[in-house]
């Protein structure tokens, strides 16, 4: 992804003709192409480290799917440091954790984003008791039932090497999109993240090189399909 000169998390909606918006649409196309071969309906957006651009990628990819008239659900899977509700200015009192705790029905937790075809499931408050919401069968059941209502489900998650949440989400998904921030790339961290995904037999749908400079030697935008080595 190109560097967003004005840091705007929803650029694909605010400026659909921009180069960045176009790149997110290209990313959508590539994922759609893969879906023809293997079901790719629940995608976790992750990275080795924090601040690589997971949330930015998840949001803009969601908007790009919405623009293609696909019904999208964007889940804030970062239960520790949720951001989606802040960016879209929706409340986080009820969300994923509230559904799991039986505090509200699914319909009450899901919010409209204000962007065409894009719905949001905020994280909800962090669970105070020791339950591990992601390891529960309710999460599997919830995602299975949401799959019937949406064409694509994108899950924004925390960094793989920081907390276990990300790999737990990935186990519920059809694969992960690995975001790598140009200039932040450390080979050891990348290898460690890849090893973790391999050990858990999690499919890497592709990798996205984020925040590249247009005139740098590295490509302006880069997407690597799963079959190639990252
Ligand atoms: N391509 C980009 N160009 C400019 N700023 C970006 C880009 N991608 C992300 N950012 C900014 O970097 C910060 C971290 O991005 P974010 O998507 O929140 O990362 P993560 O979710 O991986 O922690 C945010 O302030 C975001 O606006
Ligand atoms: Mg984030």
From TrEMBL:
GO terms for cellular component: plasma membrane. GO terms for molecular function: ATP binding; non-membrane spanning protein tyrosine kinase activity. InterPro entries: AAA_dom, Bact_polysacc_biosynth/exp, P-loop_NTPase, Wzc-like_C. Pfam families: AAA_31 (PF13614). It comes from the Bacteria. Its EC number is 2.7.10.2. Gene3D superfamilies: P-loop containing nucleotide triphosphate hydrolases. Residues 51-184 form the AAA domain. Keywords: ATP-binding, Kinase, Nucleotide-binding, Transferase, Tyrosine-protein kinase. PANTHER family: FERRIC ENTEROBACTIN TRANSPORT PROTEIN FEPE, TYROSINE-PROTEIN KINASE. Belongs to the CpsD/CapB family. This is non-specific protein-tyrosine kinase. It comes from Paenibacillus psychroresistens.
């Amino acid at each position: 992804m190109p560097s967003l000169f004005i840091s705007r998390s929803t650029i694909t909606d605010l400026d659909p003709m921009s180069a960045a918006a176009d790149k997110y649409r290209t990313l959508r196309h590539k994922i759609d192409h893969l879906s023809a071969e293997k079901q790719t309906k629940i995608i976790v957006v992750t990275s080795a480290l924090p601040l690589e651009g997971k949330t930015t990628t998840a949001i803009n990819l969601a908007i790009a799917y919405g623009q293609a008239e696909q019904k999208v659900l964007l889940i804030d899977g970062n239960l520790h440091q949720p951001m989606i509700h802040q960016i879209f200015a929706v409340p986080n009192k009820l969300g994923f954790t509230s559904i799991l705790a039986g505090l509200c029905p699914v319909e009450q937790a899901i919010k409209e984003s204000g962007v065409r075809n894009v719905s949001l499931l905020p994280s909800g408050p962090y669970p105070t008791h020791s339950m591990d919401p992601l390891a529960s069968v309710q999460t599997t059941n919830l995602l299975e039932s949401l799959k019937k209502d949406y064409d694509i489900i994108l899950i924004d998650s925390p960094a793989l090497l920081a907390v276990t949440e990300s790999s737990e989400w990935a186990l519920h998904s059809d694969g992960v999109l690995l975001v790598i921030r140009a200039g932040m790339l450390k080979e050891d961290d990348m290898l460690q993240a890849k090893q973790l995904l391999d050990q858990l037999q999690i499919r890497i749908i592709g990798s996205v090189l984020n925040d590249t400079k247009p005139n740098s030697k590295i490509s302006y935008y880069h997407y690597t399909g799963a079959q190639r080595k990252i």
